[in-house]
Design brief:
It is a single chain. With about 180 residues, the protein is α+β, with helices and mostly antiparallel strands. The chain has one domain. The chain is about 20% helix and about 30% strand. The protein has helices at about 35-45, 130-140, 170-175; strands at about 15, 25-30, 45-60, 65-80, 85-100, 120, 125. It has a five-stranded mixed sheet with strand order 2-3-4-5-6, with helices on one face. It is elongated.
Length: about 180
């Protein structure tokens, strides 16, 4: 979640690893208009009207840094059926760990049975803005539906006056098999 790559992160908020101590320190971050517009494009949203988060950072044993946070966002997605705008308010808690701090000699004791993932840090900073952007991406509804939108009823016939049952999609496929 450190945001490595050739592109510039749309919502970057760097925190020096050296500034993080054992006592949790909270950082409040909020995306500006241009950052929200660029993130909306990256995430395939119609709009990202609001994005803010509170992230608590604390140093754990060794070079392990723990980030716990809460994000809120107002997004507009496209309905997967009608393409109509679907507004959603998202609130999500998250936690992640960072290790390394760019020092090759950094050693971290990890619990192999832990469900927490550890992100390797290759520089001297942690990008908590990129972490929030990635957590937002995970929290988005992958199949947003507008109110009242329904999938079309393909491959089925309407019931007749005599109460005949509907043809199933498999029956339609069976007809295609026959010469």
């Amino acid at each position: 979640m450190s945001g490595r790559g050739s592109r510039t992160n749309e919502f970057s908020r760097l925190v020096s690893i050296e500034s993080i101590g054992p006592k949790a320190q909270a950082r409040n971050i909020e995306a500006g208009e241009e950052e929200r517009r660029n993130l909306a494009e990256r995430l395939g949203l119609i709009a990202l009207d609001d994005l803010s988060a509170t992230v608590e950072l604390s140093r754990m044993a060794g070079d392990l840094v723990r980030a716990k946070g809460h994000l809120t966002a107002d997004v507009v997605q496209s309905c997967v059926i009608t393409l109509a705008p679907v507004l959603a308010h998202i609130e999500a808690d998250f936690a992640c760990n960072y290790a390394g701090g760019g020092r090759p000699e950094a050693e971290v004791d990890l619990d192999p049975l832990s469900e927490d993932e550890v992100e390797a840090v290759t520089g001297e900073d942690i990008d908590i803005g990129e972490t929030v952007a990635q957590q937002l991406a995970v929290a988005l509804d992958p199949y947003p539906k507008a109110p009242g939108a329904a999938w079309p009823d393909h491959g089925q016939q309407e019931a007749g006056a005599a109460g005949e049952s509907r043809e199933t999609p498999f029956a339609g496929l069976e007809k295609l098999k026959k010469p």
